[in-house]
Amino acid sequence: MNILILGGTGRVGSQIVTLALQDKHHVTILVRTPEKIQRTDDHLTIIQGNVFNKEDIVRSMQEIDVVISALSTDGGTTLTESMPYIIEAMENEGIKRIITIGTAGILQSRTSPDLLRYQSSESKRKLTRAAEEHHKVYELLKQSTLDWTIVCPTYLPDGEPLGEYRVERDFLPENGVKIHVPDTAEFTYRQITSNNFIKSRVGIAY
Q1: 61-90 residue pLDDT tens
Q2: What are residue 31's phi and psi, to 5 degrees?
């Protein structure tokens, strides 16, 4: 399978790259600074470019079967500026499947079901800017023709993979507090061959 991974140098993205290469998939990474990729592999293609550049996104989509976006907000508008280009390029290339990393803030609130968690008292976070960015991406994907899945981890520390965790469509699993980076990467990666959460958000926590 030909997989495009955006955010492939980040904490989650880099581990998804490793998993995909271990399984001998062909992996393409679009990255601003290729020197950050400290590996060589016959199945790895590195494209120097920027997700803010429409042409770079289009170049990276050639011959791709599935897109995984582990892009972070970077404290700015990375997600909302890049996602329209990603969706347009995928639709033009006939690529249907995209899996993205979101945040538990855009899952439905259990206490106020009409609200998302970040909009309700369920979320303890004072700052909502990152969740607002992820919310806009969720709306863009809903309006697209793509088969999307948004993986929504709660607190995401580094740590050893436990291999056991809970997932739930549209909600954070009850009393979910955290999920380690490797387990988030493993679940996200497995969605390339799963249809369980098409056009869904999925909460993930221990």
Answers
A1: 999 999 999 998 877 899 999 999 999 999
A2: -145, 140
Taking only the tens place, the pLDDT of each residue in 95-105 is 999 999 999 99
In this prediction, residue 53 carries a pLDDT of: 95
| 100, 151 contact by CB (below 8 A) | yes
Phi, psi values for residue 148, rounded to 5°:
-105, 155
Pairing of strands 97-101, 147-153: parallel
CATH of residue 136 = 3.40.50.720
Domain residue limits at 59: 2-205
Type and span of the H or E element at 182: helix 181-190
Q: At 121, is the pLDDT very low, low, confident or very high (cuts 50, 70, 90)?
A: confident
Domain tally, the chain: 1
| Dist. CA 37–CA 148, nearest whole Å | 27
What does the block give as tokens for 14?
Answer: 């880099």
Are 88 and 81 in contact by the 8 Å Cβ rule? The answer is: no
The continuous run of DSSP H or E covering 7 comes out as: none
For 130, the 3-state DSSP assignment is helix
User: How far does CA 6 lie from the centroid of its chain?
Assistant: 8
* Amino acid at position 110, single letter: R
